[in-house]
Amino acid sequence: MMLEYEVLVCRSDTPEEPTPSVPPPENPYLIGVGRADCTGPVADVPLMGYANPDQTAGGIHTRLFSRAFIVDDGSKRVVFVTAEIGMISQRLRLEVLKELELKYGDLYRQENVILSGTHTHSGLAGYFQYTLFIITSKGYIKSSIQPIVNGIVKSIDVAHKNMRPGRIFVSKGEIVGSNLNRSPHSYLNNPEEERNRYKSNTDEQIVTLKFTDLDGDGMGVFSWFAVHPVSMNYTNRMVSSDNLGYASYLFEQEKNIGYLPGEGPFVAAFATANSGDVTPNTRGPYCINTGERCDYLNSSCPIGGTRMCVAFGPGNDIFDSTRIIGENIYRKAKELYGSAKQELRGSVHAAHQWVNMTDVTVQLDSTHSVKTCKPALGHSFAAGTIDGGGDLNFTQGAVEGDPFWDGIRDALLGAPSKEIQECQNPKPILFSTGEMNWPFPWHPDIVDVQIITIGSVAIVAVPGEELEKNAAFTNSEVVITGLCNIYTHYITTYEEYQVQRYEGASTIYGPHTLSAYIQHFRGLARAIAEGKVGELPKGPEPPFFSNLFSLLGEPPVDRSPENTTFGDVLQQVHPVYKVGEVASVTFVAGNPRNSGEMRDKTFVTVEKFHNSTSTWEVVHTDASWETRFYWIKGTANQSNATVEWHIPLSAESGTYRIRHFGHYKQRVIFPVITAYEGSSHTFRVTKTLYSL
């Protein structure tokens, strides 16, 4: 993944200390934290990450949340949001900013609001306005983007309403064994003297900001760690926040005692850092058809090519791997949260520009300059990675084109111009997206560059999946956060670009992309340091396209099997379960898309009966780690919903039931949507089967 640079340079080591002993500053920050559900339709919509329109949603592993943090120094204010989605698209950011302007005027605007996606590959697609992403997402899906917009805005609303004086502490540590470089061959192309500065070819550092009120009570925590949330891999069909989301879940559940997931005042956000070529699948890649190690140079197998080369681990399955990586991240963040004592003081600042990344001149020295290119994707882009390979016979590391595929490209899309081929060299161009504009441009020209600072910490918002880390700041504590504001694939070093593995082939603005970003971030940093942010040129505004279209049709009417109705149980629970076992029940179901927006609601509850009051208490929802909601699409417009409760060892003995809620569509003269619900039989949970 590009050369790994230190994310944060703290002024001193911070020994463990449970409570800061330094008195609060005279002029404390105003701090607000907020969280809101941003889960969209959990059926039929493609998942965003593997660019496979056939990998469509079919249920919920965990719900998706947006988490917002606001910091105000008394005169200026900054906002950082991380949402559990694949990435922030330009269209999504523009729609969020429009909603914020309607509510707050110019209080929250493009200069002082950073939007970041965690990069889970199990979030929902359909929120892009550029053709390449429209094709792989089944278009622009209003029912998918609207819950994300609403969730992000609501998380900011909650943070805004909850603002109070507080303190911020920064700490850092290392997590070893939870990430793996999936392109080590590319990394070795970086200069040896630079590689020798680091003990690993991945960034193992975690950076944590601790937020408290003036009484020392915790308000929230914000952490950055470099890992791809792809523990839930390309075989998954369930909406999931993946490993970073599970770290948030664990931290919030510990702090918000007595609250269901997604509820409670404490907010724990885990954002992606420089995760470009970093996989959580720490067992590494194997040929799944033979068990042999994949080819080191191009990550392929003798039989089956790149599709058969897949990385796994560290767990026994995708759920177990998600749990292990998430727990590792959570445990270290919790340790850092408890020991943090380096307090942030000073002003907050924000700097932002729009930049035409297709036409940036980078001054290398007093006599030499280079330029960025119109966007293009190389042949190795189609090869995919060890986290999910391509279906066709492309391989990573291709520095020459293929006459067969180039001929098909030329016939269907047109040949790349000589200018773009020379500019992107040595990339063999598969898609010359910068020269493709029907029905909309295939890739963005205008991108955001943005920095916010809180005291001595600078948060650099990168619109891709990597960046050199100490490029713009020398004396500050710098956090690189990726997948921000707009998605532009990858940003490799010049040296790694030459190797043209997946990451280099996906560095769309050419070999000098990184240098161009460094130049612009240095400009923002200089403006902040010199107090000249107001003099920064705004830059060319990005487009906001009209007439976007969806390729996903409306859900059909729902039908139930003969002699059944929606909510009926097709397969019942057992009468007794022991903790550690799985209770499962299957219902006649409607298409979840017919339930409309289901933010802050649930398709599932697990309920415990209280004999003393003869009432049922909800102990789990579909936001819980312990539940899994599978929607199974059948034939003749029929479908089932299977609900699993993975009974934790901590579950109390007693009587339980599982309920399912949904809606089904009928057509009389016009479509009619009707709510339904179903319940399992009651069943007993025991600590041991011998305790009946």
TrEMBL record:
Cofactor: Zn(2+)
Binding site for Zn(2+): 119, 228, 465, 490
Gene Ontology cellular-component annotations: cytoplasm; extracellular region; plasma membrane
Domain Neutral/alkaline non-lysosomal ceramidase N-terminal per the UniProt entry, residue ranges: 29-519
Listed GO MF terms: metal ion binding; N-acylsphingosine amidohydrolase activity
InterPro entries: Ceramidase_alk (IPR006823), NCDase_C_sf (IPR038445), NEUT/ALK_ceramidase_C (IPR031331), NEUT/ALK_ceramidase_N (IPR031329)
Keyword Metal-binding: yes
Originating species: Astyanax mexicanus (Blind cave fish)
Protein name: Neutral ceramidase
Record lineage: Eukaryota, Metazoa, Chordata, Craniata, Vertebrata
GO BP terms: ceramide catabolic process; long-chain fatty acid biosynthetic process; sphingosine biosynthetic process
Gene designation per UniProt: LOC103021762
